[in-house]
Amino acid sequence: MAIIIGLSGGIASGKTTVANLFNQHFNIDIVDADIVAREVVALGSEGLKQIVAHFGEEILLEDRTLNRSKLREVIFSEPNEKQWLNDLLHPMIRDKINSDLSKVTSPYALLVAPLLVENQMQGMADRVLIVDVPTEVQIERTMSRDNVSREQVIAILKSQASREQRLAVANDVIENHTKNHELLPQITDLHQKYVALSTIDRSE
Question: Which parts of the chain are coiled coil (predicted)?
Protein backbone atom coordinates (compact mmCIF):
# COMPACT_ATOMS: atom_id res chain seq x y z
CA MET A 1 0.00 0.00 0.00
CA ALA A 2 1.16 3.54 -0.77
CA ILE A 3 2.34 5.74 2.07
CA ILE A 4 -0.30 8.21 3.20
CA ILE A 5 0.40 11.90 3.68
CA GLY A 6 -2.23 13.65 5.80
CA LEU A 7 -2.65 17.16 4.39
CA SER A 8 -4.31 19.78 6.56
CA GLY A 9 -4.37 23.45 7.48
CA GLY A 10 -6.71 26.09 8.81
CA ILE A 11 -9.34 27.99 6.87
CA ALA A 12 -7.97 29.79 3.77
CA SER A 13 -4.53 28.27 4.23
CA GLY A 14 -4.52 26.92 0.67
CA LYS A 15 -4.96 23.16 1.29
CA THR A 16 -6.92 22.64 -1.93
CA THR A 17 -4.41 24.61 -3.99
CA VAL A 18 -1.54 22.55 -2.59
CA ALA A 19 -3.35 19.24 -3.15
CA ASN A 20 -4.21 20.21 -6.73
CA LEU A 21 -0.58 21.10 -7.46
CA PHE A 22 0.58 17.67 -6.23
CA ASN A 23 -2.04 16.10 -8.50
CA GLN A 24 -1.47 18.26 -11.58
CA HIS A 25 2.33 18.19 -11.58
CA PHE A 26 3.03 14.73 -10.17
CA ASN A 27 -0.22 12.79 -10.73
CA ILE A 28 -0.60 12.04 -7.01
CA ASP A 29 -3.89 10.48 -5.94
CA ILE A 30 -6.03 12.50 -3.53
CA VAL A 31 -8.62 11.29 -1.04
CA ASP A 32 -10.58 14.26 0.29
CA ALA A 33 -12.28 13.73 3.65
CA ASP A 34 -14.87 16.45 2.90
CA ILE A 35 -15.92 14.69 -0.31
CA VAL A 36 -16.10 11.34 1.50
CA ALA A 37 -18.26 12.96 4.21
CA ARG A 38 -20.72 14.00 1.48
CA GLU A 39 -20.63 10.57 -0.17
CA VAL A 40 -21.61 8.69 3.00
CA VAL A 41 -24.86 10.70 3.21
CA ALA A 42 -25.60 10.79 -0.53
CA LEU A 43 -28.95 9.73 -1.98
CA GLY A 44 -29.45 6.00 -1.43
CA SER A 45 -26.64 5.70 1.13
CA GLU A 46 -26.93 3.81 4.40
CA GLY A 47 -25.89 6.99 6.21
CA LEU A 48 -28.81 8.95 4.79
CA LYS A 49 -31.28 6.14 5.58
CA GLN A 50 -30.23 6.13 9.23
CA ILE A 51 -30.37 9.94 9.46
CA VAL A 52 -33.93 9.92 8.09
CA ALA A 53 -34.93 7.11 10.47
CA HIS A 54 -33.60 9.19 13.38
CA PHE A 55 -34.65 12.74 12.47
CA GLY A 56 -37.65 12.08 10.23
CA GLU A 57 -38.52 13.00 6.65
CA GLU A 58 -38.32 16.74 7.42
CA ILE A 59 -34.52 16.45 7.33
CA LEU A 60 -34.77 15.99 3.53
CA LEU A 61 -35.09 18.45 0.67
CA GLU A 62 -37.76 18.02 -2.00
CA ASP A 63 -35.40 15.91 -4.13
CA ARG A 64 -34.93 13.50 -1.19
CA THR A 65 -31.32 14.58 -0.59
CA LEU A 66 -30.10 15.72 2.83
CA ASN A 67 -31.08 19.22 3.93
CA ARG A 68 -27.67 20.17 5.32
CA SER A 69 -28.69 23.55 6.69
CA LYS A 70 -31.62 21.98 8.57
CA LEU A 71 -29.32 19.27 9.97
CA ARG A 72 -26.80 21.92 11.06
CA GLU A 73 -29.56 23.82 12.90
CA VAL A 74 -30.62 20.68 14.75
CA ILE A 75 -27.16 19.59 15.85
CA PHE A 76 -26.07 23.08 16.89
CA SER A 77 -29.06 23.42 19.19
CA GLU A 78 -28.89 19.82 20.50
CA PRO A 79 -25.41 18.63 21.59
CA ASN A 80 -26.74 15.07 22.08
CA GLU A 81 -27.90 14.98 18.46
CA LYS A 82 -24.49 16.16 17.30
CA GLN A 83 -22.91 13.31 19.25
CA TRP A 84 -25.37 10.82 17.73
CA LEU A 85 -24.53 12.05 14.23
CA ASN A 86 -20.77 11.90 14.87
CA ASP A 87 -21.08 8.37 16.26
CA LEU A 88 -22.95 7.34 13.11
CA LEU A 89 -20.87 9.09 10.46
CA HIS A 90 -17.27 9.08 11.72
CA PRO A 91 -16.85 5.28 11.42
CA MET A 92 -18.50 5.36 7.97
CA ILE A 93 -16.19 8.16 6.85
CA ARG A 94 -13.09 6.37 8.16
CA ASP A 95 -14.09 3.10 6.47
CA LYS A 96 -14.69 4.85 3.14
CA ILE A 97 -11.40 6.77 3.42
CA ASN A 98 -9.52 3.52 4.11
CA SER A 99 -11.27 1.84 1.19
CA ASP A 100 -10.37 4.73 -1.16
CA LEU A 101 -6.76 4.80 0.09
CA SER A 102 -6.41 1.06 -0.58
CA LYS A 103 -7.07 1.74 -4.29
CA VAL A 104 -4.32 4.34 -4.68
CA THR A 105 -1.92 3.75 -7.61
CA SER A 106 0.53 6.66 -7.13
CA PRO A 107 3.71 6.14 -5.01
CA TYR A 108 2.04 7.98 -2.14
CA ALA A 109 -1.39 9.51 -1.58
CA LEU A 110 -2.68 12.70 -0.04
CA LEU A 111 -5.42 12.41 2.55
CA VAL A 112 -6.83 15.94 2.55
CA ALA A 113 -8.61 16.52 5.86
CA PRO A 114 -9.39 20.07 7.04
CA LEU A 115 -10.26 18.67 10.50
CA LEU A 116 -7.35 16.22 10.66
CA VAL A 117 -6.23 17.52 14.07
CA GLU A 118 -9.70 18.25 15.46
CA ASN A 119 -10.95 14.74 14.59
CA GLN A 120 -7.64 13.11 15.58
CA MET A 121 -7.21 11.55 12.15
CA GLN A 122 -3.41 11.84 12.08
CA GLY A 123 -3.26 8.14 12.95
CA MET A 124 -4.64 7.39 9.48
CA ALA A 125 -1.53 8.91 7.88
CA ASP A 126 2.14 7.95 7.82
CA ARG A 127 3.17 11.62 7.82
CA VAL A 128 1.35 14.91 8.38
CA LEU A 129 1.84 17.87 6.04
CA ILE A 130 0.49 21.19 7.31
CA VAL A 131 -0.12 24.18 5.05
CA ASP A 132 0.73 27.07 7.32
CA VAL A 133 -0.15 30.75 7.09
CA PRO A 134 -0.17 33.54 9.70
CA THR A 135 -3.55 34.07 11.35
CA GLU A 136 -3.89 37.60 9.95
CA VAL A 137 -3.48 36.25 6.41
CA GLN A 138 -6.21 33.67 7.07
CA ILE A 139 -8.54 36.42 8.29
CA GLU A 140 -7.92 38.67 5.29
CA ARG A 141 -8.23 35.85 2.75
CA THR A 142 -11.45 34.50 4.25
CA MET A 143 -13.06 37.96 4.48
CA SER A 144 -12.20 38.55 0.82
CA ARG A 145 -13.11 35.07 -0.45
CA ASP A 146 -16.36 34.53 1.47
CA ASN A 147 -17.43 38.16 1.87
CA VAL A 148 -17.84 37.78 5.64
CA SER A 149 -17.00 40.01 8.57
CA ARG A 150 -13.78 39.88 10.55
CA GLU A 151 -15.77 38.78 13.62
CA GLN A 152 -17.23 35.80 11.71
CA VAL A 153 -13.79 34.68 10.57
CA ILE A 154 -12.39 34.96 14.11
CA ALA A 155 -15.31 32.82 15.37
CA ILE A 156 -14.48 30.17 12.74
CA LEU A 157 -10.80 30.24 13.72
CA LYS A 158 -11.71 29.74 17.38
CA SER A 159 -13.74 26.63 16.46
CA GLN A 160 -10.73 25.09 14.68
CA ALA A 161 -7.47 23.75 16.05
CA SER A 162 -4.97 26.53 16.64
CA ARG A 163 -1.99 27.13 14.39
CA GLU A 164 0.25 25.86 17.19
CA GLN A 165 -1.78 22.65 17.62
CA ARG A 166 -1.51 21.87 13.90
CA LEU A 167 2.22 22.59 13.75
CA ALA A 168 2.75 20.37 16.80
CA VAL A 169 1.65 17.27 14.81
CA ALA A 170 3.35 18.27 11.53
CA ASN A 171 6.16 16.22 10.02
CA ASP A 172 6.37 18.66 7.12
CA VAL A 173 5.21 22.26 6.63
CA ILE A 174 4.43 24.27 3.50
CA GLU A 175 4.54 28.04 3.98
CA ASN A 176 1.75 29.63 1.95
CA HIS A 177 1.63 33.27 3.01
CA THR A 178 3.05 34.60 -0.27
CA LYS A 179 2.16 34.17 -3.94
CA ASN A 180 1.11 30.76 -5.25
CA HIS A 181 4.06 30.52 -7.65
CA GLU A 182 6.30 30.07 -4.62
CA LEU A 183 4.41 26.91 -3.65
CA LEU A 184 5.67 24.67 -6.44
CA PRO A 185 9.35 24.55 -5.38
CA GLN A 186 8.25 23.51 -1.86
CA ILE A 187 5.88 20.89 -3.31
CA THR A 188 8.56 19.57 -5.67
CA ASP A 189 11.00 19.09 -2.78
CA LEU A 190 8.35 17.26 -0.74
CA HIS A 191 7.33 15.11 -3.72
CA GLN A 192 10.91 13.92 -4.14
CA LYS A 193 11.11 13.23 -0.40
CA TYR A 194 7.83 11.27 -0.38
CA VAL A 195 8.78 9.19 -3.44
CA ALA A 196 12.06 8.30 -1.74
CA LEU A 197 10.20 7.37 1.45
CA SER A 198 7.72 5.21 -0.49
CA THR A 199 10.62 3.38 -2.15
CA ILE A 200 12.16 2.65 1.27
CA ASP A 201 8.75 1.61 2.60
CA ARG A 202 8.24 -0.90 -0.23
CA SER A 203 11.72 -2.39 0.15
CA GLU A 204 11.29 -3.15 3.83
Answer: none
